[in-house]
Amino acid sequence: MASPTPAFRLLGFPVHVRPGFLLFAVLIVAINGPQYGVPFALMIAVLTLIHELGHALAARRTGAEAEIALDFMAGYASFTPRRPLRPLERIGISLAGPAAQIVTGTLFYVAIGGRSVIPTHGELTPLQAAAFWAGPVIGLLNLIPVLPLDGGNMLHAALSAIAPSKATRWMYAITVAITGAGLVWMILDERARPYIVFVLLPLFAVFSSMGRDKQRARQAVGQQAVARAEATAWATGRAGEFPPGARPSPWFRAWEELQSGRPDMARRLLLADLADPSPSNWWPPDAAPVGALRDLAELLPAEMTAARSFSAYALGEVLLRTGDTHRAGTFAATAYGQHRTPLLALQVARAAAALGDQPTSMAWLRTAARGADPVALRQAVDRAPEFEWLRHDPALADALTG
């Protein structure tokens, strides 16, 4: 898990303290005055750290690697699962944070003399008030079932077990409904108006997430259209209509040149693509006949580099598909040194597996696992025929955990 140097470590977890966290503490003191602000800022800092430590410890129990960041108005325990997590495990990770905060805050509140479950104004000392609000109150508020609060994440995990494809949409609707109702109440209740910001934050987060989801959906649809156009071109031997901004792959255009008796032009097209660092606007030649790809690969020099990882990945796939395994592994290893993408590391692992080199294959698979989404990596490994003879090797499952 790549990250900046942590401020310190707690129980083995890197802890990052962002400037926003310190700014938030200063604002608490400025708004509430030193008498109440200082103990409140201290309790917020300590109990936020304990909250995130609860998440991190629960994530570690599943085998995940976790780290903690303290930022403006919030903390974050990010973790990288080494396998798909069950809904109950995800619920447990989400619950562990507020549970640690509520229990610790309540015990400290009682230890310093706090007794009231619903204290009246002026009943508590500044430290008791800070422990009460920063511990059980904020911890319980975090269990409200709206995103991005822990209660919302817990409900999302539960809904995912029932209807995985609909869970996120349902959670967006639930969050908007609950926070919208809260916003109306706060507008109507003069005493609640100062706290409107705490309702607006979840709404803003949800609408931002909805926007990102729509953008990803549009990108996925666009990529599918380009992939279909590329497949149609190979099937018909003619570059038909491509979506705006997209074009046939350099492999198809090179194949057209080769079919027209211009191998030098075909070679120049492929080498020009490998030298091009600009964003790609084509789809890999997944639908191309192996024979056509083999003829094109033979035009290329023995040693090559690629200016962008996408072209490197496409070439690695071509070499693996055409059986040029040693060359594929050598090229992908060199390209990984330049681009550091998990897909290239996976190609080296596949090439080594095809050559019967289990130790090298597992080492590169562990490298891929350190930067890849665990579910996507496992699916890619399941689809790769090179790993067929390793399916029942315990080392394969171990390598997939990084």
Please tag this protein with its features.
mainly alpha; 402 residues
Textual characterization of the structure:
This protein has helices spanning 19-61, 87-111, 126-141, 150-162, 167-188, 197-236, 250-259, 263-275, 290-297, 309-321, 325-339, 342-354, 358-371, 374-383, 394-400; strands spanning 8-10, 13-17, 65-71, 74-80. It is mainly alpha-helical and 402 residues long. The chain is 65% helix and 5% strand. The model has no long low-confidence stretch (mean pLDDT 88). It contains 15 helices and four strands. A four-stranded mixed sheet has the order 1-2-3-4. Among the domains are: 1-143, no CATH class; 146-225. A hairpin with a 2-residue loop joins strand 3 and strand 4 (74-80).
Shape: elongated
Helix content: 55-70%
Main-sheet strand order equals: 1-2-3-4
Number of helices: 15
Give me the count of strands. 4
Q: Biggest sheet, in brief?
A: 4 strands, mixed
Show unreliable segments: none
What class, by secondary structure content? mainly alpha
Q: What is the straight-line distance between the termini?
A: 11 Å
From N to C, what is the helix and strand string?
EEHEEHHHHHHHHHHHHHH
pLDDT average, as an integer? 88
The oligomeric state of the chains shown is: single chain
Beta fraction of the residues? 5-15%
Instruction: Please give the radius of gyration in angstroms.
Output: 27 Å
